[in-house]
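so my prof wants the structure for this chain in the tokens format not the other one, which i didnt know existed until like an hour ago. anyway here's the sequence
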Amino acid sequence: MFNILLGHNKAAHSPLPVIMDIPSKILETAVNEIATLPGVGKRSALRYALHLLDTSDSDFAAFIGALTRLKSDTHYCSRCHCISDTPLCPICSSPKRNQKIICVVENIQEVMAIENTGRYNGLYHVLGGVISPLDGIGIGDLTISQLIDRVAAEQTEEVILALPTTMEGDTTNIYIDRQLKQFPDLKVTTIARGIAIGDNLEYADEITLGRSIVNRVPFGVI
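here's what i got, hopefully its the right format
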């Protein structure tokens, strides 16, 4: 049976954890599933499971329904691979966006981070990761070939490389830049290094990220 640490034994001279068995196998299974979420430990998972157990039937049904719809009704945009409720996301389908600029990002969170700056009006392309052999992520696991196809088909004028300033991000930037050399009239830029080396865009403050987008520079000069 699953054991969980509930705290320290204050009566002992040296702090020892107090361990309690979960009395229900059904609850234990729920805790184990919740604990698979990023950043959620077993103690937090138990707290969440007990909270859900105490909610009303209508609130619990609404919660489960939202998760079910998340899995069954959301899409990845057929153009940029961002999350969407429709086959083509609102950004790609908006006539107000600059259709000639594509900002390449690692994940969906970075699309939201850049959008929150209010300083960018082009389109996006979500790679779904960066090249990282140690993590088993190769070129074929990313949407790089789809990006090249987009640039060719949409007569793109500029591609902004906005990947993390890490070794893996820089490796991916360099690979994409080489693939884009076949388009001699294409401008390839990268965000200004207002973002610290090693930082992910989703953790940058909006002012710094916004300035980095506005003050982007040709790729390869920094």
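also thought this was worth mentioning. The chain is about 40% helix and 15% strand.
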